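This part of the workshop introduces the protein records we will be handling. As an example, a complete record with its sequence and its structure tokens follows.
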Amino acid sequence: MTRDALIVGINQYQELPELNAPAADAQAVAELLQEYGEFKTRRMPEVVDSKNHLAVGQQTPVTTAELQAALISLLKPEGRVAANTVLFYFSGHGLQRTTGIREGFLATSDTRAEQGGIPLNWLRRLIDESPVKQIIVILDCCHSGELFNVDEATPSKKEGCTRLFIAASQAYEAAYESLEGDYSVLTKAVLSGLNPHRTKGGKISNHNLVHWVSEQLREETQRPIIEHSGVEFLLTRAEGVIPPPPRTQLSTLSRLRRMTFAFCPYRGLEPFCEKHADYFFGRDDLIQTLLEKVQRSSLCAVVGASSSGKTSLLRAGLIHQLQQGQIIAGSDAWTIKYLTPGQRPLRSLAATFIDPDASDIERAAQLHRAETLLKESESGLAQLIAATDLRAESGLGRRFVLIIDQFEEAVRPTDIPQVNEEHQQFVRCLTTALDDDSLPINVVIGLRTDAMDQLLIYADLFRKLEDNIITMTSIPYRQLRDVVTKPAEKVNLQIEPQLLNTLMVDLTGAPGELTLIQQTLLELWRRKEMSAMSNGPRLTTAAYNAIGGVKRVLINRASAVYEGFTQDERQAAERIFLALCELGDGQEDNKRRAYKSELINETYPAELINRTLEKLVAARLVIVDQETTLETQPKGTAIPGAAWQTQASPQAEIRRWFVQSAPLPATYPETVEIAHKSLIRDWSLLRQWLHTHRDWLRYRRRLEEHAQEWAQRGRPNHPEYLLVGRRLQEARAFSLQYRRELSTLAQDLVTASRRTQMRLRLRTGVLTLLVPLALIAGMTVSFLRSRLSKHWQNLPRIKQEQVLEQHGVPSDVRVQHLLLGPVQS
């Protein structure tokens, strides 16, 4: 008898809020089914943990296409016999949409609020057509009751078939995390229901599970929907067990009072975004100043140290307040775009102008057209904004606000001329748009303090910024206290007075300290004390001492994670962290964003790097992102077709641009970034690595950057993009000595450069040989012609005429020759 299970737990979403519980819930279900149910279990997303066991990935996405294919393989397999029993468990976001009819969806990582996901009516039809005899479906997500919302939703009653459907909530309800413990409300009941140790006989059937879940959640404010038909069959078993004593149940009032306790109001190493604005405190004065600058000037900058909270100020502060439209009247109608330049700033800028509702192919074409216009014309951004403004029903009071965070990525000089040229074009497009008084535009940039000097080479931009710079200052004591206490008050989280005093003594309020504060508070929240008798959970001094305080919280975590690695993972971690450090030339070392492809070669294969990164991401030590994608970029502004076709000003080339061919862009590379600069500054192990490898690391960095640029250009064989002369000699020598440190891409660049150089040398050698041969041949021909000419002139006339006649020369030509002298032939 074959038994298959598909267990899905999705934490990561591109546009929907991230979740904390699903991956852990799914992993617990998978382990229980494997241990006691004899199920062949497939996890999604599936990773390998530190003990080389399969686990549900905390940070790995699951696409709609992947889940759809897995469901088809589970329920309607092709090319193999269907299992006797299958179980499908899903934990994640559930969505409900109304487009003429109301529908429910299981949200995958690439699902957007307005489209995408697995339709529940499609899942229902797939189940009804499945040849599997025994099917169990457990949906722990919001609106999962949509599976039973129409008449034909009743589980299939085919003769000889058994169906069990459990949904966490009604079609109109949200699903909640458990009021106590680590799992959601439904999953907690399912786990305990499937556990055979709770029964005297050690056996759990489908009927047992239905009864247990119903009884456990009878008093809950959220009750599941259960549909069951067919015969009884065994789900899990364990022989010779004694059931544990029942746990004391909390009253409904106690559960309701603790409903918000599963939500952490602190962001840890992640920035505050617009959706977290209610928990963003301590920067009210800077928000007010920034809003005033936006009203008075078309360009302003937020400047501060790394991890000083610039992103949080721009997103949870500025963008949130503009969207509210309360401080600046009418700002809720403004078009607001947020972006980070990345390695390709023009592409990132172009991505904000694509239509989010277009097909993938059309969006790719729009991205190509917008990027081409920005590259070819300094007025490209101005034209795009002007075209976008055609969408407005009324131009009165409307503005286009462009917020560019991490602006240092667009002005940092490199050794690659093509990259520097793209940076300069990016800035020229900005300044040209700002100089156009007819455009209702505001540009706000976020910039690291150590990158201010790099702005000096852009004189026009720097001049506009001189009087409009807002510096991320230290937080005063009262506001620093609000950072700690105000979010806790919103969720009834208690803070020991002694802990609060200790925090205030240990903290200075320095801008770069804010992320460490949030991470410390997050760690304290994870160690909160729970008590049924208190008014809520409590953060304690004992937990603070246990984690080592503010200064050691991240360092301790990094050391603990590293110690848990295998030997090859430790070597990979060293490689990863070194790649994420920007070496300071006379300044402090800083963090940098690196391509994942920089890390991979034959010594460090992709599987090892991905496995190590998964663990580092789970520990919040590094951040893996994608540089520019149509899916992950903030929604673009759809520009109407009329705008592309009817712009006819002398400055606009949009008509030509619209009919241009638009090939699909290449796959967008993944990037990796260290979570917080304090790791570089204070982690002794990383400092030791940097000290040991600093000399060759600097050269490797330049070579890797050149290789990335070469790859982005399509790996051309033209010497302009390759290594030549002395640079090639240095690269070859470095490659021979440090080959295991270079990425596969960098090695390919050195190889391609050598081949091109050899072809050029061969061509030059052939030319060098042919030139003297041609000269010798020319001199020989000239000498022979001279000797023949003299011999001909010495012949008698009659003899010349005979020779001409023998060679078939016409008589008129012979006469002309004899009368006028020799005729050149």
